[in-house]
Design goal:
Blueprint: E1 4-5, E2 13-23, E3 26-32, E4 38-44, E5 55-65, H1 85-93, E6 109-114, E7 118-124, E8 130-134
Antiparallel strand pairs: 1-8, 2-3, 2-5, 3-4, 4-8, 5-6, 6-7
Length: 136
């Protein structure tokens, strides 16, 4: 089966995510939706973070424009941590720590899959770097 653009598939709600891993320059996982359809999700990236390899229940996938959430150092064009400690801890818990010090033009997006825990977080160069392959 051909790969599908992420935006053409609804991957939120009562779902199961399993086999979260990183291989050959891609963060990957298996996603089973509430109707029993299974997808392989692959995101081209150079790093990723995960608190758990799987979760069942209410799972949400989002691609976020990082410039809406993190300060950008004007001279360098890199994402930087906010000045107050509480906000620094908040961005670490949400996976933003992966892009601190990176140029915002090179890494404008963050892919986040979360349920109770962060299942997969990774920076993206483009939304099109996330592809979905129907498995069954």
């Amino acid at each position: 089966m051909p790969e599908l653009p992420l935006m053409s598939v609804k991957l939120n709600g009562d779902s199961a995510v399993r086999n979260v891993n990183y291989a050959s320059g891609c963060a990957e996982c298996i996603w089973e939706d509430s109707e029993g359809t299974t997808y392989g999700l692959r995101a081209r990236t150079d790093t990723f973070f995960s608190e758990a390899p799987e979760e069942h229940g209410s799972v949400r996938l989002e691609i976020e424009a990082l410039s809406d959430s993190l300060p950008i150092h004007e001279a360098s064009g890199c994402y930087c941590a906010p000045p107050d400690f509480g906000r620094q801890m908040s961005i670490a818990r949400q996976g933003y720590h992966l892009v601190l010090g990176r140029r915002h033009r090179d890494w404008p997006y963050l892919l986040r899959i979360r349920g109770y825990r962060l299942l997969l977080v990774c920076p993206l160069r483009a939304k099109e770097d996330v592809m979905v392959l129907p498995i069954g």
